[in-house]
C-alpha cells in the first residue's frame, strides 16, 4: 500500500470495511482499463507466469502499488503487476494477477484475500487459483499440473469475519474441473494442504498431511478459495507440482528448484490454463 493511501482504505485497520477497499480497488481497475467489468480472474502462482500471454492480448497493465489495498510482489518469480487480458476474440476480459499476498508475509488475512474480493467487485464470476506446491504422490514428477479437488486449511485462520456461515462442500467447482479435463484428459486431482510457511514442511509434517488426506502441500490458496466462495465466485484450483515434498524425495528443498520446475513447465501449464479459460 502506498503512503498516500487514505486511512479509510487501510486493510490493517480493524475499523476498515475490507469490501469497501475491494470496491475502491475495482473502481481504479475499471478506470485504468477502460472497461466496467471483467469476467474471469486468475491468480498466477509459481510456474504459471506465461498464462496471461497465452490467453490473449494484454490490453492494460497496472502496477499493484497503484491500486488500493495492493502491494508490490514479495516473492521471487512473481510479477508485481495486474493485467487486463482479452480472452481470445470472445469480447470477454480476464483480470490476471501476477502475484499474491501470502499469509506468511504477516500482513493479515484481509490482505491475503484482497485480490479475490477485488475480482468479485470488478464483476468476475469465476476465479482460477494456481500455485506451485510439493507433491506427496511420487508419480507426480516436477512439472505436473494437478486439479485441486478439496483443501485442508492448517493456517488456523479464516478470511470470514463474524457469524457468517459459508458452505464449503463443493468449494472447488466440479463443473470447472470437468472443463479442465476436456482440455487435458490426463489431469489428476488431489487435496491441497495449506501450511503457514514460509519454511518448508518437515518430513513428519508431510506424513501428517498424507495421513489426514492430503496430496499436495503449499503455503497459499485455501484462504483465497474460502473468500471466493463467500463472494459468490466459482473456483477452479490448479497446483503445479514443482518438487516432491520433504521426505517423499531424498533431495533437499529450495526455492530455486521451485522456480526452475516452473520455467520447465511454463508452456504446458500456460496453454492448459488458457484453453480452460476460453471454455469457462
Automatic annotation (TrEMBL):
An annotated GO BP: nucleoside metabolic process
UniProt KW Transferase keyword: yes
Chain ranges of the Nucleoside phosphorylase domain: 40-278
InterPro entries, per database record: Nucleoside_phosphorylase_d, Nucleoside_phosphorylase_sf, PUNP, Purine_phosphorylase
Catalytic activity annotation: a purine 2'-deoxy-D-ribonucleoside + phosphate = a purine nucleobase + 2-deoxy-alpha-D-ribose 1-phosphate
Signal peptide residues on this chain, from the entry's feature table: none
A GO-annotated cellular component: cytoplasm
Sequence positions that bind phosphate: 46, 78, 100-102, 132, 220
Entry superkingdom: Bacteria
EC number: 2.4.2.1
Binding site for a purine D-ribonucleoside: 201, 243
Pathway assignment: Purine metabolism; purine nucleoside salvage
Keyword Translocase: no
Record GO terms (molecular function): purine-nucleoside phosphorylase activity
Quaternary assembly: Homotrimer.
Similarity comment: family membership: Belongs to the PNP/MTAP phosphorylase family.
Protein function: The purine nucleoside phosphorylases catalyze the phosphorolytic breakdown of the N-glycosidic bond in the beta-(deoxy)ribonucleoside molecules, with the formation of the corresponding free purine bases and pentose-1-phosphate. Cleaves guanosine, inosine, 2'-deoxyguanosine and 2'-deoxyinosine.
Protein name: Purine nucleoside phosphorylase
Amino acid at each position: 500500500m502506498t503512503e498516500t493511501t487514505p486511512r479509510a482504505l487501510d486493510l490493517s485497520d480493524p475499523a476498515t470495511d475490507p469490501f469497501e477497499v475491494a470496491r475502491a480497488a475495482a473502481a481504479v481497475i475499471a478506470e485504468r482499463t477502460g472497461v466496467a467489468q471483467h469476467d474471469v480472474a486468475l491468480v498466477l502462482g509459481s510456474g504459471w507466469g506465461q498464462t496471461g500471454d497465452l490467453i490473449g492480448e494484454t490490453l492494460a497493465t497496472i502496477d499493484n502499488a497503484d491500486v488500493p489495498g495492493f502491494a508490490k510482489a514479495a516473492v521471487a518469480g512473481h510479477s508485481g503487476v495486474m493485467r487486463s487480458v482479452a480472452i481470445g476474440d470472445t469480447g470477454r476480459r480476464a483480470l490476471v494477477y501476477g502475484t499474491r499476498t501470502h499469509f506468511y508475509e504477516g500482513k493479515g488475512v484481509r490482505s491475503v484475500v484482497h485480490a479475490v474480493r477485488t475480482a468479485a467487485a470488478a464483476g468476475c464470476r469465476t476465479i482460477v487459483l494456481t500455485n506451485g506446491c510439493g507433491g506427496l504422490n511420487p508419480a507426480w514428477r516436477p512439472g505436473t499440473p494437478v486439479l485441486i479437488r478439496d483443501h485442508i486449511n492448517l493456517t488456523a485462520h479464516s478470511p470470514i469475519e463474524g457469524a457468517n456461515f459459508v458452505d464449503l462442500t463443493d468449494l472447488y467447482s466440479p463443473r470447472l474441473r470437468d472443463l479442465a479435463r476436456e482440455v487435458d484428459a490426463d489431469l489428476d486431482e488431489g487435496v491441497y494442504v495449506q501450511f503457514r510457511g514460509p519454511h518448508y514442511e518437515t518430513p513428519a509434517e508431510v506424513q501428517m498431511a498424507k495421513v489426514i488426506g492430503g496430496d499436495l502441500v503449499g503455503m497459499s490458496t485455501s484462504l483465497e478459495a474460502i473468500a471466493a466462495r463467500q463472494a459468490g465466485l466459482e473456483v477452479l484450483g490448479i497446483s503445479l507440482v514443482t518438487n516432491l515434498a520433504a521426505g517423499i524425495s531424498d533431495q533437499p528443498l529450495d526455492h530455486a528448484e521451485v522456480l526452475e520446475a516452473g520455467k520447465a513447465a511454463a508452456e504446458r501449464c500456460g496453454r492448459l490454463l488458457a484453453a480452460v479459460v476460453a471454455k469457462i
